[in-house]
Amino acid sequence: MGTKERAGQVAVALLVCLTTLSATDTKKDFKYAVGPKASVSIINEYGPVSVKPSSGNQVLVSATLHSDSVEVDNSQVGNRIEFRTHLLHGATPQNSQVEYEVLVPSDASVTVHSTTGLLRVEQLQGDLTVQGDAVQVDVRDIKDAHVHVKTLNGPITLTNIRNGHVEVSSVGGDITMSAVSGPLVEVSSTSGKIRYDGDFGIGGEYRMQSHSGDVEAIIPADASVDVVARSVRGEVQNDFPLRPKVHNSFIAVPGKSLVGVAGKAASSVIIRTFSGKIRLKKR
Amino acid sequence: MKCAEFQEILPEIIDREAAGEHAAHLQTCTSCSELVSDLKAISEEAMRLGPTGEPSPRVWANIQRALEEEGLIRPERQPGVALVPKPRRSSPFRWLVPATAALALVGAVMVYNARQPSKGQPFDLAKTTSKPPEPRPAADIDDEQLLAEVAAPMRAEYASGLKSVNQSIRDAQQDLDQNPEDDDARHFLMDAYEQRETVYELAMARSMP
User: Fold this and answer.
1) Pairwise CA distance, residues B172 & B164, whole Å
2) What is the pTM of this model?
């Protein structure tokens, strides 16, 4: 068989596949006008959700349904918009996937739920709630907002969150934060690893705790922090230059815990793990 | 009315007075009457427990008696394990007390109901107490019920999460028992319970319409 013939067969096969896929996919588009600080909820069963800022006071939702075993219910009541995936008879996690692409005003409050898939939210300034079971969460470029994330499993990535009130909880998911700062950053996990890469801002409270996962913080030399770290059954490693704390009620045990300050000690950083390892590194 | 039929509506009777044929059965059946009386007493005590109140020894005694009667625990306690606690200092975990009492009550009623004979079969109290089953914590029963509510494709994920969280609770509790003055030990236990709450919250969010 010649190369041209083989290429032709592959092209035909691809065409058949694409035709079959497109035959079962249904894309639905929705458009709403909203006022300032609208509330938008996307409650998906299975599948990814992406939320980005829209250009005006509009909410645009594009939902791609992969079978007729699933429906999308939508409603608007005043400034509140809700989308909810509705499973029908015969629905399975495979055939009931719905992909949402959502554009909202940047000041909107957004709630996103799904059982599986990538939940991605970016460039917003309104409060944000993300919940999922076995999901991948990616939240980035958020400022002046509450960011609440709760998951059972799957990696959570927070990037460039400024002046946030951040609360993240995951039973088994690893949590990675890069350039996350705010008055409050509270992160906890049962078995997931926690990694923080940033300067801890100025004047915030940072609490990171994992029961059995490792916790790592990578800090620039000019950070202004008051650090308390302790691992009950694991170990604590530090190569960040900390000064001893003058008034200290906590007695550090070398290798198991540490206490110290850097700069003007503007932000409080508390790191705990029960059986994991804690590492403080200088960037 | 047979005992088995009466005991099918037992949870409802605890919250309100029996009426009609149920009331008539209560007047004639000592076994059911005593059972309802005990469960009502426990329920009333549990409801009276405020967030700052220590339970009275009577509460623990009632719970213990109910569990013993149901064969869920053995009357002879193992050395060092006392269901009726000695008076102690005020604890920051007082809030766990009413929760635990309520959990124990709910667990006892649920297990009791689950062990009832099907309709038409005579209820044999002696038979149910002659072979005491292995004691099961009420939290395990809650977990099983939760997993039954979770959609099948996600059940293994939730079971794994609960297993992990429950282990962390045991670890933290053990550490707190060994270091009762350690603030971090308290934090670990509280966080472990919060993680468990997260699992339940997520599960319930998924099972709601």
Assistant:
1) 12
2) 0.69
